[in-house]
Amino acid sequence: MTVIQLDMPGCGTCAMMARILGDRVEHASAIERPDLLALTTATSSPVYIVMDGDKYLGSFSGAMPLSVWERKVQESQKGAE
User: Fold this and answer.
1) Which of 16, 48, 54, 59 is 20 to 30 A from residue 38's alpha carbon, by CA?
2) Which domain does 59 fall in, by range?
3) Domain total in the chain
């Protein structure tokens, strides 16, 4: 399972969440990955795309504490089962 954080240029929230999450996520620019952005209806940055290989499991967005982020990732995994 992989979580991709889609960032927007100059996004302070994206930078803050990148520091909090460290190596828990892969990073990509939302502008350079419209294919991933199209998978979600997120309206805030950063956007998190949860994938299992090439299979889309779910997405969520915004700033949050690490505990909430971990719960949302687990919910995405369970929702795909």
Assistant:
1) 16
2) 2-79
3) 1
